[in-house]
């Protein structure tokens, strides 16, 4: 489950300060990502059953594609509507969050598979929620902070002392409700796709708050 803050620093794809660019590129990319997310979501089961999907461990093709696409969509929403003027099409940040979306998708989907194998999802829904919030959530936050440190070439220590506890605390204002809905209402096949939708909303909310 993806839960992280949005930096106010904008750079171009080469990591240097970029001149003001047209927002048309952002809106065009946003349209492409909307279509891509919709197509992946509609064909989710078909992708995992495809020949290519058979080569991916634990049917991770569709989750990886959906996680990457939804993360890119959320980042484009932030670039196009929530960033302070002047708005720029930031390819570096788009790649950063797209790759993170894939990483988060793999870990989250595997976590759901472990829960399904170990627990009776109808009888042990409370246990699933607790494990999600006190194991999966801190782990996902930690992985993102590490990834953020690597991508932006930042010292990990200060991020662990500031960004990590702050983002984890903020996440508990949103994700427990998603987790309860996920494990008490949804069938297993819809858990991850709905989680991706929640991730889009969460990233947009963080863009407003930061």
Structure description:
The structure is a single chain. This protein is mainly α. Helix 1 packs antiparallel against helix 4, helix 4 packs across helix 5 and helix 5 runs antiparallel to helix 6. The radius of gyration is 17 Å and the shape is globular. It has one domain. The two termini are about 20 Å apart. About 10% of the residues have low confidence. It is built from 10 helices and no strands.
Number of domains: 1
Helix content: over 70%
Give the helix tally.
Answer: 10
- The value of Rg in angstroms is 17 Å
* DSSP, total strands: 0
Membrane topology: Multi-pass membrane protein
Pfam families: Mpv17_PMP22 (PF04117)
Family: Belongs to the peroxisomal membrane protein PXMP2/4 family.
Subcellular location: Membrane
Layout of secondary structure:
Layout: H1 24-42, H2 44-49, H3 51-54, H4 61-82, H5 91-118, H6 125-151, H7 156-161, H8 163-171, H9 175-185, H10 188-209
Helix pairs in contact: 1-4, 4-5, 4-10, 5-6, 5-10, 6-8, 6-9
Membrane topology: Multi-pass membrane protein
Pfam families: Mpv17_PMP22 (PF04117)
InterPro entries: Mpv17_PMP22
